[in-house]
Amino acid sequence: MDPSAADHDIRGRADLEVVLRRFYTAAFADGRIGPFFTEIAGTDLDVHLPLITDFWERALFRSAAYDRDPFAPHAALHAARAMTAEDFGRWVQLWHAAMDGRHRGPVAERAKAMGERIALAMHRRLAGADAPLHREGGTGFVPLAALRLRSAA
User: What residues have CB less than 8 Å from 11, skipping those under 6 apart?
Assistant: First the structure.
């Protein structure tokens, strides 16, 4: 972890807002997954951030109201341009980097593990249960198969 970074766990909504802005800023700029946000979905971060913060606050602390279907927007994106295991793997890499660069502790670890499980489940639901979790001769991104093996251990 960067020694200048915060050295505490995620304590609530304010911490989530900072780490989520950090994550989405990197994701929007990423050559692999950025176009899903910027070109296909046309995501406005200032509109999206409170909603996704509600999602993560509810997931981690059970303290926010989130009654949306998180699958629906991903299904629409997938219909416009198929999201691959490599795309989800890149999402996981950026998610881990955003957390590791800012927080450490049991809640941050739970957030990373939940992100991995969500990525795996989303990929399987969109691409099918038998979809490959990596591509032969892949591009160096974390293969989802590695996450699946780690979660089974």
Answer: 107
What's the token pair of residue 91? 């999402």
For the residues 117-136, what does the mean pLDDT come to?
A: 82
Helix, strand or coil, per DSSP, at residue 69: coil
In the DSSP assignment, the letter for residue 125 is H
Long-range contacts at 94-98 (CB < 8 A, ≥ 24 apart) = 94/23, 94/26, 94/27, 94/30, 94/33, 95/23, 97/26, 98/19, 98/20, 98/22, 98/23, 98/26
Distance CA 49, CA 136 (A): 35
**CA dist., res. 9 & res. 50, Å (int):** 20
Closest CA to 100 of 12, 9, 33, 34: 9
Instruction: Indicate whether this model's pTM tops 0.90.
Output: no
State residue 7's pLDDT score.
Answer: 76
